[in-house]
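ok, trying the design again with the full structure, not the truncated one.
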């Protein structure tokens, strides 16, 4: 009689243990429940992290897109723009644009209202991210030096009750003029030459003026500005740029984290905490795999003894149970990835049909990062592999002769 031997035999035996009826052994039920729990954990992590990535990406586009990513200045907040350290600037490979900038907090005063804002003194010939959001066919070139013109955000203009063509007074509290009646804040009347709408919070406080007019308001000498502003492709990693340490001692590096860092820190903290909590689901699933594996070793001790007497080596028996344990994590991860990507793609449709959000124009931003999914799966695999080594090793710490002698 010919007996067919399946090769490789360790995979054949491991698959036989996996795909057996649930009614036969309790360990089989634990195996598939662990698979389902792993799938739920991976799916939850993918959905939550994708939503958090989407919100982070929206914040980056709507906030960091319109403010200087880095401002290089000195302790006096006044530099000669003709003496830019170009040799150092060229080292920033991720930098997309470098322009001079005069910046200051200002008070905006009209006949009926008053507000605060941030004045950006720019050169109209340089790159300006807000230039693409001007309304009423306004051009950034309408900012002409010496004519004291200003461009406001839409919300700020509505708050002050002004429109294009009106006059507004800019007051710089940090700079004072000496007059016969004493010190007064540096101030000047500006004509509103345009309004922008960037659909961002900068609409409420950021104003544009010509760099020459801003320098005069700040009492800078000719050819001076507050510093140089730098824009980067990936502003969220400005903290990792080692080139900033090459700046001379009289220059200061100020990045967007000074004013907006708390928002992204809170977002990062929330993402990490959610990841930690959802990872506990995967941890519980992995420990269920260990329990299932331990029970299987006890149930199959006679089979193990027979395999040992038939010449199966110890490492082969260990591999059988390692394959059994890892299969739950692999199957659960694959199912979790499929369900997670499905939910992410149809998340807004699901929320809309479940009426979870009453405002129909709201779209939850999602951004799937394949490397994050790969990291989740690999961490689950590595952790499960480390944990299941011990119960798999215990399977070969038996004496086949004693087990077979007492077997019923």
């Amino acid at each position: 009689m010919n007996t067919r031997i399946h090769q490789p035999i360790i995979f054949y035996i491991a698959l036989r243990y996996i795909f057996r009826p649930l009614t036969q052994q309790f360990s089989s039920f634990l195996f598939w429940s662990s698979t389902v729990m792993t799938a739920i954990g991976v799916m939850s992590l993918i959905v939550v992290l994708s939503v958090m990535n989407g919100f982070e990406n929206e914040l980056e586009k709507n906030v960091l897109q319109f403010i200087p990513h880095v401002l290089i200045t000195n302790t006096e907040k006044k530099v000669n723009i003709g003496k830019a350290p170009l040799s150092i600037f060229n080292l920033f490979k991720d930098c997309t644009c470098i322009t001079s900038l005069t910046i200051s907090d200002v008070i905006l005063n009209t006949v009926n209202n008053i507000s605060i804002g941030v004045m950006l003194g720019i050169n109209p010939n340089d790159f300006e991210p807000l230039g693409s959001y001007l309304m009423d066919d306004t051009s950034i070139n309408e900012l002409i030096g010496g004519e004291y013109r200003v461009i406001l955000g839409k919300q700020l203009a509505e708050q002050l009750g002004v429109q294009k063509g009106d006059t507004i007074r800019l007051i710089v509290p940090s700079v004072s003029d000496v007059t016969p009646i004493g010190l007064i804040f540096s101030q000047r009347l500006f004509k509103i030459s345009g309004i922008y709408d960037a659909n961002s919070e900068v609409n409420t406080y950021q104003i544009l003026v010509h760099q020459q007019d801003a320098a005069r308001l700040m009492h800078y000498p000719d050819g001076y500005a507050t510093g140089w502003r730098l824009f980067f492709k990936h502003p969220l990693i400005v903290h990792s740029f080692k080139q900033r340490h090459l700046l001379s001692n009289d220059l200061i590096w100020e990045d967007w984290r000074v004013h907006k860092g708390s928002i992204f820190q809170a977002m990062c903290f929330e993402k990490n905490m959610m990841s930690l909590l959802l990872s506990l689901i995967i941890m519980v699933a992995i420990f269920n795999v260990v329990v299932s594996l331990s029970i299987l070793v006890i149930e199959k001790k006679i089979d193990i003894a027979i395999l040992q007497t038939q010449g199966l080596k110890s490492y082969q028996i260990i591999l059988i149970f390692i394959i059994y344990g890892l299969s739950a994590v692999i199957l659960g991860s694959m199912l979790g990835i499929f369900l997670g990507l499905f939910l992410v793609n149809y998340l807004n449709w699901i929320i809309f049909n479940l009426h979870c959000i009453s405002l129909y124009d709201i779209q939850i931003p999602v951004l799937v990062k394949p490397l994050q999914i790969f990291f989740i799966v690999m961490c689950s695999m590595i952790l499960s592999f480390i944990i299941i080594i011990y119960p798999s090793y215990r399977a070969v710490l038996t004496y086949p002769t004693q087990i077979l002698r007492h077997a019923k």
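Keeping the full-length input from now on. The two ends are 28 Å apart (CA to CA).
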